[in-house]
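Review form for a predicted model. The reviewer records the input and the model, then writes brief findings.
Reviewer: anonymous (R2)
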Amino acid sequence: MKKQPLEKKTPFFRRFIYWGLILLLFALFSGLIIASIAGINVFQHAKELGEKIPFISQVAVQEDKENIDEYKEKMIQLDAEIQNKNAEIEQLQKKIEDKDAEQERYKIEQKRLEETIDELKKQQEQNKRAFKDVVSTYASMSPKKAAPIVLEMNNDEAVKILTNLPTESLAKILENMPADKAAKYTEQISINAN
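Model under review:
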């Protein structure tokens, strides 16, 4: 009897395994397709069947409990994080509202100050017009009547009026003043002019 080489037996065994696995996988795949078309949830049935087997059901229940406990812990942590984030959001919203209120107060204050500035400008314009009227009044007065009035005034006011008078009117008013007073006013007018 001849010994057949070992090589010929191995390919047959391999072919058997390959064909057997291919056929088995094809059968499983076909069965899953047929079951899904028929509306049967194969995986649900496998789970139910696994629960009936004592050892597998205990492992599955234990794993489910561990998973549930882990999920509960994660949910608690996530709830705590959500509450913290909500508290932060509320604080930030309050800060924004405070900033908005502060900005509104600044706008109101700015508007009030602008109105005050406008009023002061108007008042200043009125004072300038009134002062010009006073200066023009002194310029139109006779120098004999204007000189004694200027002498009775406050020194600063008198210098201010005299400084704004036209040169011709100023000269005539100073001529009608005592020499020492005229010299004093002339000196102060020249100081203000520089």
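Findings: Helices lie at 6-37, 42-52, 54-140, 143-152, 155-164, 167-175, 179-193.
Further findings: The longest helix spans residues 54-140.
Recommendation: see findings above.
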